[in-house]
């Protein structure tokens, strides 16, 4: 729209539609912040290959009554399942009650194929352990279970990006973490605010996602 600063890059998505905003650098991020963009939700593809995603996102969304330990167990199970398929998974706190499992892939398959793959993985989890997992968005059918949300993997769908604050009390941040940071002795999901995250980053000995690019695999192999 007209209120978006010129410093924010644009990318044409549809020939006859308005362009989308693209944060290409720090100045772009500042420009988005100036117009009140608190949460930054992004596509799973980039300008150079809009119709070929380069990440797959699984959102583990637990029923309200489930403890964080159930999410940790689910994440571990999903990681093992993905690794058995030759893929590498990374974990990200969402700033809420769930957890994102993000898989870097070579941008070769189209959106339809990637969504089909993600649906198959989520569906197998629900089929193998129906008392723990579901792929249904219905609140009534999710009671006591973890919704394995694969729907982020569709053209036009988005997911919160790493290091984005959330528009919630305390401004928690969607924080990439090491797998070793997923502790199974916590009842509540860990949340870190915009005031805490800079110190966390400085105290880390390494970027928990530093191997992200090298971990890309092709779904077509």
What does this protein look like?
This protein is α+β, with helices and mostly antiparallel strands. It is 23% helix and 16% strand. It has a six-stranded mixed β-sheet, with helices on one face. The protein has a two-stranded antiparallel ribbon with strand order 1-2. A two-stranded antiparallel ribbon has the order 3-9. It is globular, with a radius of gyration of 18 Å. 29% of the residues are buried. The mean pLDDT is 94.
What is the structure about, briefly put?
The protein has 221 residues and is of the alpha+beta class. The chain is built from four helices and ten strands. A hairpin with an 8-residue loop joins strand 1 and strand 2.
What general form does the structure show? globular
Biggest sheet: strands, sense, closure? 6 strands, mixed
Question: Which radius of gyration do the C-alpha atoms yield?
Answer: 18 Å
Widest sheet, order of strands: 7-8-4-6-5-10
Number of helices: 4
Structural class by SSE content: alpha+beta
Number of strands: 10
β-strand amount: 15-25%
List unreliable stretches of 5+ residues. Answer: none
What is the terminal-to-terminal distance?
Answer: 41 Å
Topology pattern, helix = H, strand = E: EEHEEHEEHEEEEH
Indicate the percent of residues in helices: 10-25%
Summarize model confidence as the mean pLDDT.
94
Characteristics:
single chain, 221 residues, alpha+beta, 6-stranded mixed beta sheet, 4 helices, globular
Task: Describe the protein's topology.
Layout: E1 9-11, E2 20-22, H1 26-34, E3 41-42, E4 55-62, H2 68-83, E5 90-93, E6 99-104, H3 111-128, E7 133-134, E8 146-149, E9 159-160, E10 176-177, H4 197-203
Parallel strand pairs: 7-8
Antiparallel strand pairs: 1-2, 3-9, 4-6, 4-8, 5-6, 5-10
